[in-house]
Design goal:
9 helices, mainly alpha
Length: about 150
Amino acid sequence: MMTPGTRYAALRLARLHPDDRAWLLARLPAEVAEATHALLRMPGAARLAEAARHLEPPACASIAPEPTPVPVTASLALPLQALATLDDDWVSLWLTAHDGDAMERYLVEVDVPRCQRVLTAAAKRPAPLPPRLAATLTRWPHDSGASA
């Protein structure tokens, strides 16, 4: 018996590239894959799938950027002990999320090799960071229970 979920899955699969569709069908349970594949073979399945596209909400609506940037916290004391436990890439990410002088204040406190590695990692990072990522990073380590 075809369930509404199977029919809906078939509509969504009909819009995929054939290779992607085959990959997904191969990972479904055998009876579900066969039922879905039978629906895909029906005449007009692709046309129906295209017509049903407007019934779905956009896939990325829940992760769309906010209309206004999330404010990033201003200068705060650097958690040097916590930052010392992190990889250079994570340190550069954390510092990039903070105000402009956080990087300078950190680089003054660390040895030259660490300074160079953090600067190299920061140079590879796209700017600016997405506002939600920056806001999340500025809450660490204070909201995570780590000690500064």
